[in-house]
Amino acid sequence: TATPVRNSTKALQAADARHHLHPFTDHAGLAAKGARVITRAEGVRLWDSEGRSMIDGMSGLWCVNVGYGRAELAEVAKQQLLELPYYNTFFQTTHPPVVALSEKLASIAPAGMDLVTYAGSGSEANDTIAKLVRYFWNLQGKPRKKTIISRNYAYHGVTMQAASMSGLTAMHPQFDLPLPGVVHVEAPYWYAHGGDLGPDEFGLKAARAVEKKILELGPENVGAFIGEPIQGAGGVIIPPATYWPEIMRICRQYDVLVIADEVICGFGRTGKWFGSQTFGIQPDFMTMAKGLTSGYIPMAGIMMGGRVAETFRNAGEEIVHGFTYSGHPVAAAVALRNLEIMEEEGLVDAAGGEIGAYFQAKLRAALSDHRLVGEVRGVGMIAAMELVEHKPSHAFFDPKRGVGTLCRNHCFANGLVMRACRDVMVLAPPLSITKPEIDELVGLAADCIERTA
Ligand code: PLP
Predict the structure, then answer these.
(1) NCBIfam families from the xrefs (predicted)?
(2) What is the pLDDT of residues 311-356, one digit of tens each?
(3) Assuming Cys at both sites, which of 18, 170, 351, 423 could form a disulfide with 356, CB separation 3.0 to 4.6 Å?
(4) Of 3.90.1150.10, 1.10.472.10, 3.30.565.10, 3.40.190.170, which CATH number belongs to 36-66+348-452?
């Protein structure tokens, strides 16, 4: 029998509540009110099943960098599905889309990074890197050099290792995490933890927390440091300018590998192809996902360079790791076309130039002086507003009040997707957004913040 077409919102919500367990959601709470049914998207706009539209200030989950409705991406997917919908790259085979994509990624990556392997999601990619760190040090004859240092407020995904490396504490207790072999240090979160220090001084202090941890554990036991160039889901934490250069010095001094998790920062978000290029990071590994395909189809990549790439190229034995969907041909074809669109339309340059500057200036003009907004911060096409109870002292609201959630809900009901990380309101719109759309977005955001408290 044919599947019945459920086109009424209520019927969809009821079936959803009965059969679909949503990620990062209180199931009973959602079931009681019914999920909003999103049915269509174009450019920077979404529509729901009741015909209401919203500006998507989050590019989905920080991923739809080229915006919605790109027929070219559907076309290349269709052609690839007809020509070669699947083949693996395990058994002495390759295929044209994965070769072309790998070559392209090597051409836009930071200098010296020129070897890539693939996964299906950012979490899988970070798990892969954690395994490759172990393997690298085993090949170097340093089998004890395995501990990975991460940071508070980090988000690296939800698989066992990626969740362990994440530093958002709510992610651990339900699952008896973190796994052994991962430790966390303070984040370069000046607004919340800077105290009396200026940003640059605090940036050095936060970086030296990594050095302190390396010395405490013994450099012979520390394999890698992992960090997002800007911590995204932790609340768009922009590190002070001193932070990353000092991290690089420390990791080089103690021979600790550097993993830049570029899942959000990659593909133009910070105004260069990669956040590593914006912040002066020379990573050994980069995690890529989201903007790689603009979220049109799942795909993640692990980029390697220097001695890490050389070691794996010359391992001389089978690397016993890989996913059925590593380098999937349809995903690779979509990713390549997505990167071409970004180039053809100059979206990375726009984020690092006129459009990014316009977005940042408009937000500051509208909200810097607002009584609830302690700080507006951002780079390129990513930004955050700290909602605070007392501006002069940076005093946060009692988390039990859920001020951020309230603000997010006002936005969601009034035509804007803006996310709350605690009481930090975050924005990461498509890089293709226009100036009039930025005006509309900022107007809605300011309106909703005004109504919040
Ligand atoms: N790393 C970062 C920095 C992320 O923001 C995310 C997802 O938001 C991930 C990793 C995990 O990616 P995925 O959800 O594709 O597993």
Answers:
(1) PRK06105.1, PRK07480.1
(2) 999 999 999 999 999 999 999 999 999 999 999 999 999 999 999 9
(3) 351
(4) 3.90.1150.10
